[in-house]
Amino acid sequence: MAYSRRKFLKSSGSTISALTAAPALSLLPQSAYSASWVENLAYQAIVPELYTPTSKPPVYTKAIVIGSGFGGAISAYRLARAGIQTTVLERGLRWPNSNRRQIFATDALPDWRGYWHRTSFKGLTGVTYTFPYFNGVFDCTSFKNIDVWRGACVGGGSVVFTGVMIQPRQEYFDAIYRGLVNWDEMNKIYYPRVRAMLNLGSMPDDVYSSTPFGHSRIWDQQARKAGFVTSRTDSIFNWNVVRAELANRCRASATIGESNLGNSNGAKFDLNQNYLKYAEATGKATVYPSHEVQRITFDGSRYVVNTIKYAPDGTVKDRYDLTCDYLFLAAGSVGSSQLMVHARGRGDLPNLNEFVGEGWGTNGDTSASRSWNPLKGVLQGSPNASLLHQRGALPTTLESWYTPGMPIDVGIVGSLGMAFDQTNRGRFIYDPISDKVDLHWATSGNDDAIAMARQINNAIAAANGVLPGAWPFAPDVNGSFTAHPLGGLVLGKATDAYGRLVGYKRLYAMDGSVIPGTTGAVNPSLTISALAERNIENIIAADF
């Protein structure tokens, strides 16, 4: 049933009140400051699990995995299954799930739980939020010309992404890898293996037809009216949990626009519920939260991993060196690339080749919006339902998206765009004066992707008599960020065909850093995972 705006505004007051009834700390005036001891006590009362003491990792482990996102979790599980003692170092906290408690901050009203080591964040709606400094789940790393969105918790990006996991078209895959990775092998073995492990599936009709997904139905109707063909996407969301939300059997999360900062009730079947859980169940792998790697060296026989340990509020509590025979980089495209560029620049790993730090891209990411759309319900659910794809000189996919930070349906329809851009690339550079690694990305780096997303979005808006953009909240198309950073340790250049870093033995890249800037106009997580399954299988068979 369509709502008039007057009727909507009149009827939604109680809903808005309910949605903003987060713990009182979220509602107090906030300023840019670190958490005090009083606040830490309050935070501990809300999510006591974050303050559970964690043990120190062993000084030596046969294998160390840096990072616990898709590549790290899969590596840890397969190593553990092979009987290899494995330490997993994760900079972020291990967050619990609960059917009734609000574990995570909401996208609409973020607090200390939301963001990693920052005190403000400007969302896609143009609203700037401030909050205390904390080890929050979502890291927005700001470089010149681009913001990079990253997970910062046990489970990595699987906790904070929007759940879409789809396979690229063969023609795009082959154009990316040019025979280095065999399509048939990936298509028949590794993509299906990941799908089965993560229980991937498209949004069921009963969920799609429910009130919180009225915006998804509008998105499909408008795209089809403009002449585009839409199709359902596979997702990591557990649709039975979403159904439980709809039936009021658990606290609402996915159905009220929560996703980017986590789903408290476990609506996303994230890596904590599968690969990481299974890895630790073997007794051969242990995840150590709040441990961030600062420097990697090689002493002639073993890798030395200089690590700091954080308190939940982000203060450094300890620092120590850990050693291993086999080192797996899975800190994400930015994290893994920075570690290797830093190690080469300092002379710690001088034999790394000239391709380390090169070939970085944004996966052609953009966001697009349209306003003054028909209203079909009060709430906006966060899981994605559909996509459209346009071929051409720059093939581009748009996916139906919720509006992050705006759980109420106010007639804004959002899309996530991904262009198959094989041209625009950045690189990581080491600065010996600051001892830091920076990302160099051109001001015009996303211009081509923006132009294609705008062309599609404008065509849909014109066909439906609605407006591009969401003034004064958001422009029609935004290319100032990427949620899908890729590259820096590209397969076949910085590494061999299976992720082994050129110049060193027993050193591996297992995450999105091995992908050359694009996964072919689709979300990268499924390809990252399938490549990790492929590569770790080869590594265990050949190197151990």
From TrEMBL:
| Cofactor(s) this protein requires | FAD
Q: Spell out the PANTHER family in the cross-references.
A: CHOLESTEROL OXIDASE (PTHR47470), FAD-DEPENDENT OXIDOREDUCTASE 2 FAD BINDING DOMAIN-CONTAINING PROTEIN (PTHR47470:SF1)
Q: Name one Pfam family in it.
A: GMC_oxred_N
- Listed name of the protein: Cholesterol oxidase
Q: In which pathway does it act?
A: Steroid metabolism; cholesterol degradation
- Signal sequence span is 1-34
- MF terms per GO, please? cholesterol oxidase activity; flavin adenine dinucleotide binding; steroid Delta-isomerase activity
Tell me the keywords, alphabetical order. Answer: Cholesterol metabolism, FAD, Flavoprotein, Isomerase, Lipid metabolism, Oxidoreductase, Signal, Steroid metabolism, Sterol metabolism
InterPro entries per record: Cholesterol_Oxidase (IPR052542), FAD/NAD-bd_sf (IPR036188), GMC_OxRdtase_N (IPR000172), GMC_OxRtase_C (IPR007867), TAT_signal (IPR006311)
Chain ranges of the Glucose-methanol-choline oxidoreductase C-terminal domain? 437-532
The chain positions of domain Glucose-methanol-choline oxidoreductase N-terminal read: 144-341
Q: Which family does it belong to?
A: Belongs to the GMC oxidoreductase family.
Swiss-Prot/TrEMBL GO biological process terms: cholesterol metabolic process
Q: Does the keyword ATP-binding apply?
A: no
Enzyme Commission number(s) of this protein: 1.1.3.6, 5.3.3.1
